[in-house]
Prior knowledge:
The chain is of the alpha/beta class. The chain has helices at residues 41-52, 73-86, 106-114, 127-133, 143-156, 174-183, 211-229, 236-247, 299-306, 313-317, 321-324, 346-357, 360-365; strands spanning 5-8, 59-63, 93-99, 118-122, 160-166, 188-193, 234-235, 262-265, 270-272, 285-286.
Amino acid sequence: MKTFQLLVKPVSADCNSRCDYCFYRPVESLYPGLARHRMPAEVLEKMIREFLGQRQAETVFSWQGGEPTLAGLDFFEEVVRLEQAHGRSGQVIGNAFQTNGLLLDEEWAKFLARYQFLVGLSLDGPEEIHNSYRRDGAGQGTFARVMAAAELLRRAGVAFNLLTVVSPANVERTEEVYRFFREQGFRYLQFVPCLERNPEGQGLAPFSITAEAYGRFLCQLWDAWLQDGFPQVSIRDFDSYLARRLQGKATLCTFQATCGLYLVVEHNGDIYPCDFFVRPEYWLGSLRDRPLSDFLSLARAREFARAKAPSDRECIRCAWRGHCHGGCQKDRLQADGKWAGRTFFCDAYRAFFTHAEKDMARLRRS
Length: 366
């Protein structure tokens, strides 16, 4: 069986923040009638036991939401206990943890450090930018609390990176955002372009960005990274691009030839092929009903993996196809809200790959 990771949603879409652009919030409609959603003990134990039973070279659980800290520290202490109980001697187990940071305290930080969780902390830039879309349920900005969480993690020795959503608030302020992160000592960065349907009608949501703007963002970020950061700063997209150019294979699923690196486990054991596609039509079944090892071999899962291959003629003929492979399936959304045969960010990637090419000889030598 091919190596894969689990994206685990222990509290489903439950969250103590109400970010305007949250793509996972609509999942609430799949599980109505409950004040809160929590993963039952029997689902947690079965998932961990069967995933560790795959005996992969490295077994990675990625805990996401919603906001996974809502499950409570006791829940994750049980996670570690079960991993220790079902893991074999010498087995490598990784835990990644994506959080908004609002509930983190010293006890959380000590736990995450002790068991070497890799933490992703959501931060969109300086205070004005971050608070544009990342607010709590009372409508208050969360910047100060996120920065306090970053300091907690740093003092405790927790390995963490930043997850930054590229939105209208920061897409034209590339260097400002990058310099802010550098000044704060953040060395591991990942940027995710915002592209969502309009929840109130046709077309794209107002917090989506254009391909042209995203192309400028990537090119400006690349230049700032080379001038100031390389090789001291890791930027996920750039690391993946360099892996493709220097070693032949991208490390980021967006730029790989097929999907299928992940399975999503919802709080009740429902399985989906990707967290961008937690929708009834992509449901693969329930962990309660069949072994975890079955799901990647299901016809529907294989169809989803193959569907990433671009169908647009221009995309198929493109000189950069081997670098982006049509991008993420989720981003094949057009301005009118309909699906296209290639990524919405095609022009952005073309602009970036062309722009970065001039630096490849120097980077190879480095």
